[in-house]
Amino acid sequence: MALLNFRKREEPRTANGDLETFLHGYSIEVMPRTAEKVEDFREILPLGTRVYIAHIDGTPIEDMVATARRIAGEGFDVMPHFPARIIKDAATLENWIAMYQGEAGVKQGLLLAGGVSQPVGDFHCSMQMMETGLFDKAGFTRLHVAGHPEGNRDIDPDGGEANVMDALRWKQAFSERTDAKMAMATQFAFEAAPIVAWAKGLQDAGITLPIHIGIAGPAKLQTLIKFAIACGVGPSLKVLQKRAMDVSKLLLPYEPTEVLSDLAAHKAANPGSNIEQVHFFPLGGIKTNAKWATENGGAAGVPMAAQG
Asked: For residue 2, what pLDDT band results from cuts at 50, 70 and 90?
């Protein structure tokens, strides 16, 4: 089967220079089963792109490590998830780190609580894993943590933000007393205004961790609504619900052009904003997402013929 060629068009369909700048250095998230559908990541992503590997409960660590090894071997910076609630204890965590390093040379990770309600062992949050010192001992150079622009009822059941803010203050202090480069990779949202307000609120509170803002890639509207509800997306879900009520748009795929253009314009007007870059959740497919990014000004992958 011929590989898709996602070379950048000479005349991209957007002339939005702010968006092109904002897309520079974007990251993207995959899972072992979705990564298997990509013949060669070099064809669709610019070399050096950070590729997160999501660890869903039930996925064997061997599958995670094999995916990391494959993608790293194709020239990409691999960042696997470390979900606290599915890691039994410090010995298990140390073993995972050793496997990732030994087979894929991994030096970075996304540390998060994870999507299960009951921990299987000693850990229930990312801070406990950070406190073990195992990532520092292993020489990890970059640690990312989760961010929630529209809140998280798993952490703050009352709909507030007290617990989330306490955790972020702890992580900010951790970043200041360690050498690890840190950033927040956020849950996806569909409207720029609440993202901007949330980011500014963090800065005002003294939390300066760079924000890699989560964005859902192009997908069918029904698919996005299903994932958004499952992931606890907040008020910006109304953007999708409003679109679903418009018969003329119901069958058209959603694209993140509007939200990203608004965020890009904000970043251009406020270069000191803590919103640093884009992190894609390719809910409509990795190739589809990469193609959209290329067509809207993002760097392209290298065609197989040019790889030598």
From this structure: very low
Contacts by 112-115, CB closer than 8 A, 24 or more apart: 112/81, 112/82, 112/83, 112/84, 112/145, 112/146, 113/83, 113/84, 113/85, 113/146, 113/154, 113/155, 114/55, 114/57, 114/83, 114/84, 114/85, 114/86, 115/56, 115/57, 115/83
> 257-261: which pairs have CB atoms within 8 A and are 24 or more residues apart?
257/14, 257/19, 257/296, 259/189, 259/190, 259/191, 259/192, 259/215, 260/19, 260/22, 260/23, 260/215, 260/296, 261/16, 261/18, 261/19
The CATH code of the domain that includes 171 is 3.20.20.220
The dihedral built from the CA positions of residue 300, 301, 303 and 306, taken in this order, carries a sign that is: positive
Average pLDDT, the chain: 88
In a domain, 217, yes or no: yes
Question: Regarding predicted confidence, which is higher, 67 or 301?
Answer: 67
* Domains held by the chain: number: 1
Biggest CA pair distance of the chain? 57
Q: How many residues are present in the chain?
A: 308
Domain that residue 177 falls in: 17-297
Residue 155 in domain = yes
Residue 159 near residue 151, CB atoms below 8 Å: yes
Do 206 and 163 contact (CB within 8 A), yes or no? no
Q: Is the pLDDT of residue 250 over 60?
A: no
| Residue 306 counted as domain residue | no
Domain annotation covers residue 285: yes
Whether residue 234 is predicted with pLDDT greater than 70 in this model: the reply is no
